[in-house]
Amino acid sequence: MSCLVLTSACGSEDHEPAPTAEVPVWRVGAERTFVAGTSPHPDAALHLVLDAATRSDGTVVVANGGLESRLPIFGPDGSYLRSIGRLGDGPGEFRWVSHLERVDSDSITIFDASLSRITTVAPDGGAKVVAVRAAGAGGAGDIRRFRSVLRLAGGWAALEMDYPMPGEVGDIIRDTIAVGVLRQGLSVFDAVAELPALMSTTFDLGGRPAFGTPAFSPLVVRGTWGRCLFVGTGETAEIMVYSSTGERVGSFTGPGSPRRATGADFDAWIEHRLESADVDEREMLRSSFRDMAWVESLPFYRQLFVDPWGRIWLQEFAVPAGAGRRWYLVDQSGHPVAEVETPEPVRVFEISDEGILGQTVNEFGEEFVVRFPLGDVPAGGAGGEIEACVP
Hints:
The protein has 2 helices and 29 strands. By secondary structure, it is mostly beta strands. It has a single domain (about 20-35, about 125-390), classed as Neuraminidase, CATH 2.120.10. Strands 1, 14, 15, 16, 17 and 18 form a 6-stranded antiparallel sheet that branches. Strands 2-26-25-24-23 form a 5-stranded mixed sheet, with no helix packed on it. It has a 4-stranded antiparallel sheet with strand order 3-29-28-27, with no helix packed on it. Helix 1 (about 265-275) packs antiparallel against helix 2 (about 280-290). The radius of gyration is 21 Å and the shape is globular.
């Protein structure tokens, strides 16, 4: 891990918009077929949801990062059933779950980024814990910490943890992270790329220095399918493709055009940040935020997701918070398949024949895990699979 010190205005120059190919527009169904987050049960509240997974019986397990690290389980009708785990460091306890997925006959694999370990919970509640202590190129003393792991056919991909960094007021400092594959029982990490990641900026907060993430900071977007990891840095439209053996097997430039952020965009970002602040502090915070450095070009994408048929979904970055309703759907060579519209902004966790499972947030900041039917989005592949990726 290292950092890059950038200027306070990190945007690129304006470019002429790239021509957009004529592609169909597919719309996701508006009726929610599943909603979690409305139950009055005290253990059913959702906060800082990072992932969710559906079992074959229709129950949904949610990675609930902000409330004692419990993983609530909801029935197919959204009713609260029970929870997995509690806050702690022991077996069956969690600190910060950043990824989970269904594997092997309804077992749930849970990655705890804070504890650097994977826990597999069987349908009968039995649990197996595997530590992730992967050494990098420096050998046994070069222990890496990972923000997330993602399953590949025959192995795992991993993204190194990134950190906010203080600096001079007005500077933007950007951490860099390694992405790669885990081998030898999760004990060895082979980095395949070093990518720019989290941005930090220092600003004056009521007379004292503070640092945070600047407006419109791009995020690393990633997804897996078969034997491949698809990853992009957000500030360009390039998507890189790596195999489970660490070989770069392709890249493409995704759809979309660069757009410079405006003062109105920045104002919208500030007001969004103030929604959860105490009323008495809002004016002070508003003044401080206005003095923050901000990224002058909007990121291309907020999320990358690869569906079960190998198609790549790229979520267009939307002001103020990133998640939007418009997705570009491309094949694995980057050729446009369609544009997809969701009925509301959604962070996608799963796509299946049953629909799109993801997180939505209402105007009061309340979080929900919902499923929308695919609507007129066809299931099935679109061709263009990379041979090295096919399971």
